[in-house]
Specification:
Layout lengths: L7 E4 L2 E4 L8 H13 L2 H8 L3 H14 L6 H14 L4 H17 L10 H10 L3 E5 L4 H9 L12 E3 L10 H11 L6 E5 L2 H9 L3 E5 L15 E3 L5 E4 L12
Parallel strand pairs: 1-8, 2-3, 2-5, 3-4, 5-6, 6-7
Length: 252
Amino acid sequence: MTLPAPALRFDVDAVVLDIEGTTSATGFVVDVLYPYSRSRFAALLSERGADPEVARAVAQVRELTGDPRADAAAVVKTLDAWLDEDRKATPLKTLQGLIWSQGFARGDLVAHFYDDVVPALRAWHAAGLRLYVYSSGSVAAQRAWFSSTPEGDLLPLLSGLHDTENAGPKQEPESYRRIAHSTRLAPERLLFLSDRCGELDAARAAGWHTVGIRRPGEPYFERGVGDHAQAGTFDEISVGTTGSDTTRSDTT
């Protein structure tokens, strides 16, 4: 049986991936990872408070809340409140990443990926495409996530990891310019996949190609992705470095 040809074709050198709602279910992050980190914030601050990364994150919490003398209990209360708001605060993501890294290393956690994702990533990598991640989750969390999957360690497929600390906020074009500069690729040689219209808008404003990933059941599914090309799975996207013109088409 002949499979239908992918609806979207792009002549690019690299694909940059969002995680939640794009490669992986947001529900897994909210229902599994968030409670796991919430139950361990206090222990992390108590046991590793002197670690430079933990100390820097705590200082950032104090700065953001305007309370330079906030003790550990106050910091944990702020982190819990940010979790309830699903706020993409850099210190929250840093501390979550440290906790999740320990959980993945211990085998408490195993990452989730949609069924279409890993085969596509392997195929794109084998075809010579560079793969990057840009997520609000910290680089430490991304590294743990991709190294602890049902399909084994996927880190060798990736050329780089970007978060809100080393790249910037995900809805600002400058963040995507910063990533493009770090990859040494022209913006038009980069394709960004995300489920959030604001992120796609920012990437396109920086000169990137974009595809909105719309998976039923995801929080942003009903909102749509504006006038960006869209796909329900990675199977609908064809990428390569053929040197031919890129075709961009919208699907419903």
